[in-house]
Specification:
- 31% of the residues lie in helices and 28% in strands.
- It is of the alpha/beta class.
- It folds into two domains: 3-121 and 267-286, Rossmann fold (3-Layer(aba) Sandwich); 123-264 and 295-306, Dihydrodipicolinate Reductase, domain 2 (2-Layer Sandwich), CATH 3.30.360.10.
- The protein is globular.
- The N and C termini lie far apart (47 Å).
- The chain binds NADP nicotinamide-adenine-dinucleotide phosphate.
- NADP nicotinamide-adenine-dinucleotide phosphate (NAP) binds next to helix 1.
Amino acid sequence: MTATDRIGLALAGVGKIARDQHIPSVENGDDFVIQAAISRHGKIDSAENFESYDAFLTARPDIRAISLCTPPEVRFDMAKKAIAAGLDVLLEKPPAATIGEAQALAELADKAGVSLFATWHSRFANGVEPAREWLSDKTIAGIEITWKEDVRRWHPGQAWIWEAGGFGVFDPGINALSILTAIIPGQTLVEKASLSFPANRQQPIAASLQMRSAAGAPITAEFDWRQEGPQTWDIVVKTDQGTLRLAKGGAELYIDETLTVEGPDREYARIYTRFAELVRTRTSDADFQPLRLVADAFLTAERHEVEAFIE
Ligand code: NAP
């Protein structure tokens, strides 16, 4: 692919995930070139930089696609304007602040004939597709998800994550739910949930979920942001023909505790390959089931107050 075949891309929200993953993945890939950045504080040296989103839309109608890497609560307005301007849109996870917003975006994109890609980066981890394949001819007896990490390490100074609409511990927890819903078919349902809110925060620091798969298997999920030391991002699936374990957020796959799949992190490289495919074929990929599970957890949850969280 020559440089001129690359799809012109804008990126909004030059924060942690943009710097850690999006910018290097685009630069190391063949499909896109970042031509504009929209951020009030961050900049991308190789691109034209805008502080105002509307100013970007007016100045650069030549750009074909946009990656929205801002927090979820401001993503809807940006996505709506991008779709109206005819841009193909990549949404960081979670795709929107509410199911209503997510569904509205899917409808708007469909009507406008632009591609909408609601990304779930964990679905692109090395072990996830092999896990789905391995499970496809097995009967699942039960699934246990354990997603425990240190919020101070992974979300330093991110005030938005604790505010209304910020998702709290579901910000990482939704990654586990995105893997779960990729490796088993049908609609998973939440049966019971328990959420722990620090006395001084609007969003939960921990959550326990009881769910059931479409085929009737019990599923539990434990999300906790208070884990110091080693971090745990595991999904264990017990079946009639052995036990599957996805470890390190899906990066490693074990069958009966034998390491079967591992390799370098390619999640965001695969995301941009997929986005290019969607843009070139004028199609969308927008599955909101992980967001719906989070919403259902909030709808069904018992609320517990726990010790205040001081960063
Ligand atoms: P972040 O470091 O806070 O960056 C988000 C950027 O969005 C900010 O730097 C800010 O840039 C811009 N922004 C625009 N409106 C904002 C508002 N009202 N409040 C705060 N920032 C606003 O967050 P992040 O960790 O990159 O996360 C962004 C999204 O990526 C989230 O949905 C998150 O779930 C997802 N994600 C994060 C990670 C991770 O490891 N951090 C991993 C995967 C996915 P300006 O101030 O310059 O405008």
